[in-house]
Amino acid sequence: MIRFDNLHKRFGAKVVLDGFSLDVPDGATTVLIGASGSGKSVILKHIVGLLQPDAGGVDVDGRRVDALDTEELVALRRQIGYVFQSAALFDSMTLAENVRMGLARQQLPESEVASRTADALAHVGLSDAAGRYPAEVSGGMRKRAGIARAIALRPRYILWDEPTSGLDPVTSATMDRLMRRTAAELGTTSLVVTHDMRSAFAVGDRIAMLHEGRVRAVGTGEAMRATSDPVVRQFIEGRPE
Amino acid sequence: MKSAREIVSFIGGAALRAWRSLRDVGTWSPLLVGQMRRLGVDSIPIALFIAVFTGIVLALLSSYIFTGTVPNYFVGALVGKTIMLELGPVLTGMALAGRVGANIAAEIGTMKVTEQVDALETLAYDPGSYLVVPRVLAATVMFPVVTALAIGVGVLTGWFTAINLLDLTTLEFVKGLRMFYQFKDLWFGLIKAASFGLVVALTGCLRGLATQNGAEGVGRETTRAVVIGCEAILALDAFWALVLL
Ligand SMILES: Nc1ncnc2c1ncn2[C@@H]1O[C@H](COP(=O)(O)OP(=O)(O)O)[C@@H](O)[C@H]1O
Ligand SMILES: [Mg+2]
Questions:
Q1: Domain boundaries in chain A?
Q2: Alpha-carbon distance A146 to A154, whole Å?
Q3: Which of A129, A233, B122, B149 has the highest CB neighbour count under 10 A?
Q4: Beta strand A206-211 with A55-60: parallel, antiparallel or unpaired?
């Protein structure tokens, strides 16, 4: 399980996280909602040690991430698939080569690498596009290739950074289904970060709202819909004021 | 101002990271040849273009300076010495600071702002081993190679100019060339070139990795990498002249 313990982070004078605490239980999908620029990506980056906290910390399976040494951090990262907002594909490589990149770091026989690459691409419906370059495919396909690259490592956790942003409504709904199917078939624990409420209700077993650097509210989709907290209501209903 | 202790611990930390990245040979070695081609071989045309004109101008200038004062064959000496010691390494270095420094900073900077550098890390790659080491090693090896070619071509065009446009024979030109030549002239120029390659590539990598704020940031850091690279070349040039001559 992933546990955020009173996480503080600032960049210069700008306080982004101000005592963020949240539990992400195993075997479920937790969705973190929050406005653009509220610090959702910053939270995800702390889980894999891409950013270090100013105070507090993140525990993954009971171990404090920022206290790990280099080898331990590499071992932790193998357990965690990170789906980047912009897909972050390596643009000099084909989609299949992108998926292979992570596998190439593990001591696996070539046949295993090839079959895992094919499986991951098939899982996201990209078998036919394996040999194409990121610049040659649509934004939705790039996102799915990013997912294939993450799941090829057979991670226990998947972190999704705004998986539906920039997608049309139909493609978004397809993405929601892909997220649910991935969690069910691979048995992964998911933490999804988004400001797309339709997607949040569709995939979230639990929803937490980030506001001013802390968790403002947390509960099931039903509970969040029924809340009387004006800040949460405003965000869910998408009212300007 | 930072305390001396902080500076020492910063340098120590950087050296430790550099050592870790270098030790991971399996990651950077497959990428080395590609970078040598991209940063070195592809830079040969611009370096030779500069060398041709340097050779012509030097021959004409030295003839203008020497006519009526010292024997004509000194043209060969001046062309050879200045190209090997100074103009070959520095002009090539400057041209490559633009080409190589900008190429590296823009590519790594774009990878940084599109989260590709983060993606590398989450896939268990050390960006130091995967991005920095192959580029820095390639530039350190290839700058002297390109510079050696530029020196050869510069001297050749100087000779060609001397026998065609000036009243010199090949024998006279070669006599001048050999009169003051020391083996040190050549390796001094090539050591300088290696140090230029190292700082230009390292600056490009570090500026690229420090990039923030999208396309604007990429432009800013690319410019900065080129400017710092050129300044570092001039400073190193003076340093080597003090230390080695
Ligand atoms: N590496 C960084 N350096 C400086 N500021 C940053 C950095 N990363 C994020 N920020 C700032 O932190 C805030 C939250 O960013 P982010 O987590 O990306 O927001 P979002 O919730 O949209 O994902 C923003 O104001 C952003 O400018
Ligand atoms: Mg974000």
A1: 2-79+156-236, 92-154
A2: 14
A3: B122
A4: unpaired
Q: What is the pLDDT along chain A (241 residues), one digit of tens a residue?
A: 999 999 999 999 999 999 999 999 999 999 999 999 999 999 999 999 999 999 999 999 999 999 999 889 999 999 999 999 999 999 999 999 999 999 998 889 999 999 999 999 999 999 999 999 999 999 999 999 999 999 999 999 999 999 998 889 999 999 999 999 999 999 999 999 999 999 999 999 999 999 999 999 999 999 999 999 999 999 999 888 7
For ligand 1, whether the C-beta of A46 sits within 6 Å is no
Asked whether A213 lines ligand 1 (CB < 6 A), one says no
Structure tokens at A195: 């400001």
Q: How close does chain B come to A74, measured CA to CA in Å?
A: 6
Paired with A29 in beta bridges are A190
Residue to probe by mutation, ligand 1, list A8, A11, A194, A235, most atoms within 8 Å of CB: A11
Angle, CA A164 vertex, CA A160 and CA A168 arms, to 5°: 165
Ligand 1 atom with the shortest distance to the CA of A36: 22
Distance between A235 CA and the closest CA of chain B, angstroms: 27
Are residues B219 and B169 in contact, defined by beta-carbon separation less than 8 angstroms? no
Flag if B118 and A90 touch (Cβ within 8 Å). Answer: no
CATH class of A2-79+156-236: alpha beta
Q: In this complex, is the C-beta atom of B20 within 8 Å of any C-beta atom belonging to chain A?
A: yes
Tell me which residue has its CA closest to atom 3 in ligand 1.
Answer: A11
Q: Which two tokens stand for residue A24?
A: 């992400």
Which residue in A45, A65, A67, A58 sits closest to A5, CA to CA? A58
The CB of A39 under 6 Å from ligand 1? The reply is yes
CA distances from A205 to A4, A43, A175, B54 (A): 18, 19, 16, 71
Size of interface A-B (CB pairs under 8 A): 44
Atom of ligand 1 nearest to the CA of A162: 23
User: Helices B170-179 and B133-165: crossing angle, nearest 10°?
Assistant: 130
Render the burial of A76-109: b for 16+ CB within 10 Å, e for the rest.
bbbebbbbbbbbbbbeeebbbbbbbbbbbbeeee
| Cβ of A16 less than 6 Å from ligand 1 | yes
